[in-house]
Amino acid sequence: MNIHDTLETVLNNYLTETKKDFAGNWLAATLRRGFDADELSFNNDKIKVYGSGGSGGWAGAPWIAICDTEMTTSVQRGFFVVYLFSEDMKRVYLSLNQGWTFWEKEFKNDNFEQSAVDKVKEVSSYFQSKLSIRNTALPMKLATTSSKSSKLALGYEAGEIYSIEYDANDLPGNSVLVKDVELMWSKLMDVKSLMQDAGDLTESVTYILNYQRNASFTNNVQETVSITDKLSEAKLIEKQRPVSRKTRKNSSGKKKRIAKKKDYLAQHEKNQELGLSGEELVLEYEKQRLVDYPQLQAMVKRVSKDGDGDGYDILSYNIDGSPLYIEVKTTNGSSNTPFYMSQNEYEFAVENKSNYVIYRLYKFTDLAKNDVNQVQFYKIQGDDFEKKKCK
């Protein structure tokens, strides 16, 4: 069946069929099959379409998911596109969502003083911000009872990144539903490109949770004001790139691994305001560098204003007219403070290494000091990239 007929069948029959035995039920089998994916433009061997009306018994809120198998093969974890039916069968939502079971199991005993619901909401908020997603519809409302089966529905409500709501009595035609699925799938691909490692869900969401908590350069209001006031006159001063630290050895002469927490991945990452200020400093620096080449100077721009999907922050030019792709990494730590590159950023850097450079700004909040109006930085050329992510 196509998407429309599958959804309509579930909406019209689910409440009636749940009064019958689950084992061998035709509607439970229909949900497990999902719908015919041949009409989807993105259909390939990495797409998995399937659904569920419950496990061993009827679920309060059934679903039909479309998964990218490189990201996940189960709706218990990861990110996917999913049709979620409300318990009363009055609505069905097409949603960009997250696997709730992962959050219940993976983070129930971690050191963050925060519930799993709050954490999954933070991850949703992160991607909404990165993708400039603004839901015009009301938040999903799947659960209509306080039953145990409603816990999963509440988890999906918390994991909602983006959704489209359909009234059971006014279901669009199949062509509209197909276009909506393709739109939602494109947003899933954006999420995939923004993940630190699409194959390592735990690392990616840990990074995001730390980012949300530690992204601010400073919590001091006066310090923030002082930095902002100095930005118009601040200058970038290029320094020599620091030498990489060597691995320590123990007394036996063997290499000794130095344990380090993953929290550093985001402790000093740029936030919405001051991080963009670092990009503005680099933008002005590049324009000044090309002052003798007015045609090239006029084309320098900050592409990150339109989102993070390009893989770099600033488009500039070499004096021969060739493009120069600049990624800006701004932190408050020292020159050796680790920084993190997303999978999308790293892949772009490797593909364009001869025309790619990282501007590594550090000790950014020194601008709050009365006698400092300079921000230090060094460059990492694309040709210097090792075949691994810079951390």
UniProtKB/TrEMBL annotation:
Residues 239-262 are annotated as: Disordered. It comes from Fructobacillus apis. Residues 242-260 have a biased composition (Basic residues). Residues 278-366 form the Protein NO VEIN C-terminal domain. This is DUF3578 domain-containing protein. Residues 10-185 form the Type IV methyl-directed restriction enzyme EcoKMcrB subunit DNA-binding domain. Pfam families: MrcB_N, NOV_C. It comes from the Bacteria.
